[in-house]
Amino acid sequence: MKFIKTSFAHSQLQKRRHIIMKGLLVTFEGQDGSGKSTLLKLVKARLKQENFAVVVVPEFSSRVLGRFLQEILMQNKFLRLNSTGPSALTETMYILSDLYSQDELEIRPALQQGMVVIKERHIDSILACQLPKIVKDYPESDSEQVFQWLCHICGQLTEPDLTVFLRVSDAELKRRIESRGEQATENDFAVFKKRQKIYDRLAAENRHRWLEVMNEGNPQAAVQIIFEEVERRLGAR
After folding, report:
1. Residue 46 resides in a domain
2. What range does the domain containing 139 cover?
3. Residue predicted with more confidence, 229 or 83
4. Which of 125, 107, 117 is nearest to 34 (CA)?
5. Is residue 14 part of a domain?
6. Would you say the C-alpha torsion 171, 121, 209, 22 has a positive or negative sign?
7. What is the pLDDT of residues 65-124, one digit of tens each?
8. How many domains does the chain have?
9. C-alpha count within 13 angstroms, C-beta hemisphere, residue 178
10. What phi and psi, each to the nearest 5 degrees, are found at residue 212?
11. In this predicted structure, what is the pLDDT of residue 203?
12. CATH number of the domain bearing residue 72
């Protein structure tokens, strides 16, 4: 399978985005068990306490496709539809369709109203989570071309103003995953390693919006770091 290498009309996308957006989009990224959901709720509470208008957009929507994805995720934590053959492209398109619906129906309207929008997983998860699956399912594909292709089809999504990446040691990830009654296998960590390589690339290419936070100690310390960065970026507008 061949993927056509494409490039962003980056300046045009950025020009379009700044015209329509007044609020701040904050996305939470990280491996499974890194504490995204927990910290997201704490950050929301802190923002509301400080009288910021804030809304949380979950990983998947409450619409039909979003509910379907949540059901699949409960059965398979890596969101695989087919155990006997390739299905990564179908999975990617389902996830993207749901994400575009969230972007058009929830994220952009809230940003237009000047709200702080907090989103669990966004564009960076599409790249970090789906790229390894596509390359695995279609071995003849070129990983760089797939990366560029994914960037292109994500090109009309709203780019985050701030991406909070939660980093946690493998030992702590294993402890957290097992505390939820789930297994943390060598295969899981092999997948995490592939994802991390992509996250590291995204961090290097998007330093203007990337904030890495260690999330192993007191969560309130992490909340303070994130809150101060949100406040700083809002104040700079």
Report:
1. yes
2. 22-235
3. 229
4. 125
5. no
6. negative
7. 999 999 999 888 888 898 889 999 999 999 999 999 999 999 999 999 999 999 999 999
8. 1
9. 8
10. -95, 130
11. 98
12. 3.40.50.300
